[in-house]
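Q: What does the predicted 3D structure of F-box associated beta-propeller type 3 domain-containing protein look like?
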Amino acid sequence: WSESVHGLMVLGMSYGILVWNPTTGQHVTLPEPMFDYKYYCLGYDPVDDKFKLLCISRDRHQVPLVLTLGPREESWRETQNSPSHFSIRRKGICINGHVYYRAKIHFQGEERRSKDKKRVLMRFDVRYENFNTISIPEDPTLGNLIFEYQGKLAWFCSDLSSSIRFWVFEGGKKQEWSPRDFLLPFPRFALHDPVWQVPMSLCGVAHETGEFVYVAASTTRKYTRKYAEFL
């Protein structure tokens, strides 16, 4: 499933792709492209007021596909001028008309050597359907989570027991990132917490309030038993 984009979500089902509006309950099923190892990113173009679904493969030889959602029946079409890359299976995110997702890119003529694959962030312009690569922060503690923070793209780092750090993409020609550090009001590795006794994991940030949203990182027997007692 995808992040919510302007009120819509995408769910991968065994019988196809489900585009769902959780507010109204309405949904539509779309056909899947005929290749394996794929995942989807939902994008929204605020200028033309259009939703588009991007399909990316883990096979670098497969060109990314795009489909425009609307009242007319559309079909998948190949994107143009996409660099040779494959996706890293993590959720993408749409911010201000651009879809961002993690990927590895191949350098032309050097595809056979693993050292010639570079870890990057891909940016897909939903309106013009073109791609750009963004250099990632030089931080060995970078995690897997990318999210929206105050209208900008942010990349979460492996957090410590009492603080967290993430990098915010400031944009510009230099593709600058700036760090943000925060102290937590609770111990993240709360193994001795009298209630939950499980570690917590950051899953995102509430767009309107800027609050960090944490969930239990594991479901131990103690956690299951405590949850049942609360019910």
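A (community wiki): The structure tokens above were generated from the sequence. Residues 9-134 form one domain. Helices lie at 221-230.
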